[in-house]
Amino acid sequence: MTIKIGMHAGPQDLSIDELKRLWRHGDDSGYHWISVWDHFYANPLQDRGNPCFEGVAAMSALAALTSNVRVGCLVFCALFRSPGMLAKAAVTVDHLSGGRAEIGVGAGWFEEEFREFGYGFPPLGRRLDQLEEALAVIRSLWHDDVTHFKGRYYDVQGAVCSPKPVGPLRLWVGGRGKDRTPQIAARYADGFNMPYLAPEAVADRLQRLRRACEAHGRDPAEIETSVNVGFYLGDRAPEVNPGGSLTGSVQQAVDRIGAYADTGVQGLNIAIRPPVDWDALQRFTDDVMVHFQD
Amino acid sequence: MRYGIALPNNQGVARMAQLLELAVAAEAMQFDSLWVSEHLFHASYVAQRLGGRPYHEPLTLLAAVAAQTRQIRLGTSVLVLPWHHPVRLAKTLAAIDDLSEGRLLVGVGVAQTEDEFANLGVDFHRRGRIADETLGALKALWTMDVPEFSGEHYRFAGLRVEPKPRQKPHPPLLIGGNSAAAIRRLQRYGDGWHPLSLAPAQIAERSPGIGAQVPIVVRAVTEIAAQPWERPVAERRTFKGTAAELRAMIAAYRAAGVTDLVIDANTADIDATLALWRRLREEVLI
Question: Which chain B residues contact residue A290 at CB under 8 A?
Fold first, then answer.
């Protein structure tokens, strides 16, 4: 039974020193993947004064401080930066990391940060439309010599993105949605990430992704898949999404990961929410990961 | 570096006779040691791996292997201490040490399968303390003319227990596990350390705590790959890579203080296991 174990270490509610320590632990302990996330406020929103670092800058540091793991972001909000800016930043991180970058892009959901930082908060359908356009622009900038794109949200004419990526630079689409998210992934993505879903829901989304791939004439095997799960090994109770979390003992974690592996999902990222329980993390690394070595 | 093999009693091979044939083959191929594992119920990852297939009893198997081999050392990887009464365990292990002319290596651990403990009536949360007592009791049983031990779970005094093991003062006790608790147990009771699936760099990080000259026996899932892998060899937790990478990984293990590498083919397929051993002998373990 194998599943690639990663770490989703959001740059919030902790100091940069502790964040770096998390990254080093992951890079030295056989994790396959480390990703950051992209928010203005620590979430779920409790106090706007809680620290939250920016995604692109954090990802650059992750690239520079590690040498083994895939360097990811799950996910950049498509509406916060122009797709050209995000595409250029991604290629820069790709080069900095020696081809280890993995770029997730989503439609965003965090209304307070949208509104208070001046982005407005368009309805979900419109955010998803804009996400689709952004994905098309980013793909083209990475892979085409010259990009010409005219959409409802973006007008990019004769743009040249150089250098091109050195690595596979996969574009990930992530989300919990049942309908449009798998459709968008099938059309534009190299990776499909499912945050905080229980194994049964993961099985459902993978099925929907396969069907969407058939509809778009895409081979589902081209799309890498992963799930994020809250990390609450030990006595701590999950604050959010208990169904999509690892809780309790080592055996419960092993059995839960086994249930995810049975769905056919290829990767599983433990999402660390500070305060970091370092003893629990060491137990996970020593006693749980052993059962899922690639 | 000495090389051992994991005898797949934990992989669902149908008959013990097939495992005996493998053991004889391992000795003929001049491996230094063979290792068997222990679970009683099919719990957790064992259930996922085996379904309804068998998990063969390790000490019965080692006794049979002792009778059919002459040189190869016989190890456990690992016996789960809280599942054994120390007196019966001391007797059984002394018997295997006798049958094998002193070839036994006793790897011990505590396991993580909570529901297996529940079904055996052993308190999962006391397993570390029970294990420590069992180690103290085993040493008393193996070394004292009239063994005396007084713990919370076990106590005995005033009666002889014979025979003593063939090896003196007793077969090496190798403490299994990667955790800080395992290292503490090693410092107190152990003659060696038996980590599972730890990268050379991780072993090097922990080995200062266990002292020089202490044997380190690492068991690792093994595969000879066609393609190189970007992760540096010192940071791989499995013994997987091209033949050249595996040779480099052995050098990294050696530098980390590892004395024995146990090859775990991690399959019930006997032919694939033999083929892997042959290729390792020809291309890697040179």
Answer: 178, 196-197, 237
